[in-house]
Amino acid sequence: MKNKRALSWMLSIVLMCSFVLSACSGGNKDSGNGGDASNSASVSPSSSASESATASDEKHDPVTLKFISWKDTYNGLYDLFHQKYPWITIEQVPVNGQPIMGIIQAMEAAGTPADVSEIDQDLIAFDQNQLLEDLTPYIEKSTIMQGVSLPQGFYDTMTFNNKKLAVPMVDVPMWILVNKDLLAKHGVEMPANDWTYDDFRNVAKKITDPDAGEFGLTTQAEFQMRLLSTKAVADGHAANLQYMNEDLTQSVMNSPEVMSDVKWLQEFVTKDGSMQSNDAATASGNVSREFKNGKTGFAIGGDWVLPGLKKEAKFNWDVLPFPRGTQSQPGYTIYGPLSLLAGSKHKEEAFLWLSFQFTMEAQKWKIDQGANASVIDPALTAYYDETEMWKGKNTEAVKIAKENAKIQPGLTVPGWGEYNWNNIMNDIIFGTRDINDIIPETEAWNKKTLELAASLK
């Protein structure tokens, strides 16, 4: 092992010297690696000699990276990565419904550790079990990561105790899906991108016709999961999604202002009739539960719904950003965490897979799938108008959703799994649970998360 490391180091020195000689002779050119910084000579040879080259002439021992992922849609991305780093192959380890932490531990125990993994629960638990590598030194040495512009606070939801525990594998945006045919049938024009929550409610009422089995909103939990807490932010009732305060230490779900927001959405069911309750949807054959059925005007959608819509929807659909509140027009996005595992035997190669996510080719591939670009770059913004995914659709809404998106918290909030913001809202909005149950639930969790935070210091 020592001889291999020494050989790799010597090869890196030789490469560095060849780069310097080439520069002195006037032949120094950008390597064409998308997000790579042009001043790669400032990076130490041990950090990323391979990162700043496309490896066309370099000799490398073949490496297979074991990547734990529950998705089977990344084959195109694996191919792009292999083109850039031909000596590295991605071997996907399927999840098959198992807890990812258990898969990581089992593979380590078997002597065949995984290298990188998507994460399916809070990062604190993985960190406490010493399963994740701190990405900070890798990011600081990476020509790719140092050569791209990222949104302010990009790492905030994935940092704990000053350790960067993950980067987003994918930035999953949310939009309001719109059934334009149903709007037209009721004489309603497509709303503008700066529409308000009042507009949203009024249109939903106008296009509701229970006799025809048509409703303004799809009966889906996504409305309370995504839209309701976004409205609280838009109206200044909460600083963060899921009704969290500014520093993510306490929930304000039990505040009078948020309780008023809950009543607002509840009235779509109990007063307006523009969204069916769970019982009513079941009784009417569940038609209103699926936007692609064409019987509802609005739904919450993300990249996962686009393939089905494009293939199965028999009506003209489009997207809008989340509406504007009294103070702002935030959107909603989810970061899918991607971590370098502490037990990996190929950490530098594994980080190449992480950093590759932020190259131009990978970012464009993700836009092609309906996801957001994480990197701030005019060329990527322009690409929303070029991709086949959004051809003929409201691409300005997609851009607004990206620019205004708030990031779903929770990955590094102590006790997040015990925070009952989701189930209680489902029971209130779509069922018959008493809205006042929010108060003791929130008080109990606020106390618990503070206690857990203190114990983790």
From TrEMBL:
One of its GO terms (cellular component) is cell envelope. Residues 30-57 are annotated as: Disordered. Residues 1-23 form the signal peptide. Residues 30-55 have a biased composition (Low complexity). Pfam families: SBP_bac_1. Its main location: other. Keywords: Signal, Transport. SUPFAM superfamilies: Periplasmic binding protein-like II (SSF53850). The keyword Membrane does not apply. It is found in: Cell envelope. Belongs to the bacterial solute-binding protein 1 family. This is Extracellular solute-binding protein.
